[in-house]
Hints:
By secondary structure, the chain is mainly α. It has five helices and no strands. The protein has a domain at 3-59: Helix Hairpins.
Amino acid sequence: xxPYKILGITKNSTSQEIRQRYIFLAREYHPDKNGDIKxxxxxxxxxxxxxxxxxxxxxxxxxxxxxxxxxxxxxxTEPPKPPKKEPEKVPEPEPELPKKVSKNKFKKDQxxxxxxxxxxxxxxxxxxxxxxxxxx
Length: 136
């Protein structure tokens, strides 16, 4: 016995539409107007079920989704598949070390660097030692 079919409404109907339909059917089938008592009781019971969400859920629970099936296990007759082997890693060659630098070359480079820095500082002091740039 579906309460929605008895009232002649859909499950998406608003509460106002449900109430209007109930009042219309209750007037038509009311026992004081020589209506059918059983039909009136069905209409009243259906209206109470629909308007009270607790009783409606208890009587007509929402369908639960089907549980997901577990993944398929291999049949016992099938031999287990061998695990995939990773290809063997070839060791990378060690990087070549730089050749040793002679101490003489380092001294030459150091001397060139010292000369360069001396020239640079001398030029700087020559430019800043003019009368305009001095502090008073």
